[in-house]
Amino acid sequence: MQLAMIGLGRMGGNMTERLLRNGHSVVVFDRSREAVDKYAAKGATPANNLADMCAKLKPPRVIWIMVPAGKPVDDTLDELLPCSPPGDIIIDGGNSNYRETIRRGERAREKGLHFVDCGTSGGIWGLENGYCLMVGGEREAVATCEPVFHALAQAGGYAHVGPTGAGHFVKMVHNGIEYGMLQAYAEGYELLHAKEEFGLDLAKIAELWNHGSVVRSWLNELAVRAFEKDAELSALRGYVEDSGEGRWTVQEAIDLNVPAPVITLSLLARFRSRQADSFGAKVIAALRNEFGGHAVRKSGTDG
Predict the structure, then answer these.
(1) Is residue 244 a contact partner of residue 95, using CB atoms and an 8 Å limit?
(2) Virtual CA dihedral for 4, 9, 15, 20, nearest 10 degrees?
(3) What integer pLDDT is reported at residue 301 of this predicted model?
(4) Would you call 116 helix, strand, or coil by DSSP?
(5) Residue 227, Cβ neighbours under 10 Å: how many?
(6) Cβ within 8 Å of residue 92, ≥6 positions away
(7) Which residue numbers in the chain have pLDDT < 70?
(8) How far apart are CA 26 and CA 4, in angstroms?
(9) CA–CA gap between residue 129 and residue 191 (Å, rounded)
(10) 190: Cβ contacts below 8 Å, ≥ 6 apart
(11) Which one in 75, 111, 209, 264 has a CA-CA gap of 20 to 30 Å to 104?
């Protein structure tokens, strides 16, 4: 089937390529002309702007937005809605906050449009392995887009999970779980690394755990790759960003009175990773020195 893809970054570009491989016709637009040309060379139809993109689609149009969450989505909608007649289907495949998705869905419905939210997991590996798609929206609109979803997803990796907003809500919780899993692996491998007298081979152990162990996972397969490249991870700085979903998950847990200590603490651990020298840790050191005379390390010294 024919559709448009707005946003040709690491995810949108790979998704476009996977759709093309599966015989779909894709009209592409990105602010980067280089990105547009790259996928035009692979068989996509290039567009100069959103109006041009709409003109190259046959109604009812299916338009997939793959841009960063927040204002970029609203800005895209502001430009897109005037050239989208009733019956068109707009899909937001980014990591939008589900509350914003519900608001955008209501705005689209006022104009007779369908708004579908697709929580998309799979990262850069999705091109070859297929994605996991968590889709929210009206049943009719979702059914119309199912050929696209099936082309993108791996077997069993697509589900219509509920009304508009449900897809992004499920993806939010998915990412919150991911935070906790990553933190657990991080702490475990740090313990192994710290036991220097055993000379443990982390790549070997990670590979071992992927065979029959209850902690085997795709994330642990990626740990094998990382340790094989650099056992000490010496080229990396331990600075860990968060893209918002962990914060939203923790806030939702608070709002719903659901205890989520692992996800919450994994989010806070990311905050700590960004501090070169924690003021809070300095306070603790100072107080321990004051009440118990415990030794402190002066700034600018290693010992």
Answers:
(1) yes
(2) 60
(3) 59
(4) strand
(5) 20
(6) 65, 73, 101, 104, 115, 116, 117, 118, 168
(7) 300-303
(8) 5
(9) 32
(10) none
(11) 264
DSSP 198: G
Give the three-state DSSP class for 68. Answer: coil
Q: What is the DSSP string of 1-33?
A: -EEEEE--SHHHHHHHHHHHHTT-EEEEE-S-H
**Separation between Cα atoms, residue 212 and residue 231, nearest integer Å:** 23
Active site (annotated) includes residue 290: no
Residue 221 and residue 206: Cα distance in Å, rounded?
7
Write 184-187 long-range contacts (CB < 8 A, 24+). 184/262, 185/219, 185/220, 185/223, 186/269
pLDDT at res. 281: 81
pTM recorded for the entire structure: 0.92
- Render 217-232 in DSSP notation, one character per residue: -HHHHHHHHHHHH-TT
Whole-number pLDDT of residue 136:
98
**Assigned token pair, 116:** 């579908």
Question: Catalytic: which of 17, 38, 56, 171?
Answer: 171
Q: Which two tokens stand for residue 247?
A: 């914060």
| pLDDT at residue number 104 | 98
For 168-196, the pLDDT digits (tens) are 999 999 999 999 999 999 999 999 999 99
Q: Is 171 a catalytic residue?
A: yes
* Residue from 79, 178, 207, 252 carrying the catalytic annotation: 178
pLDDT at site 232: 92
Tokens of 207: 């590979």
User: E strands of 22-88, at which residues?
Assistant: 25-29, 45-46, 62-65
Tokens encoding 65: 């937005």
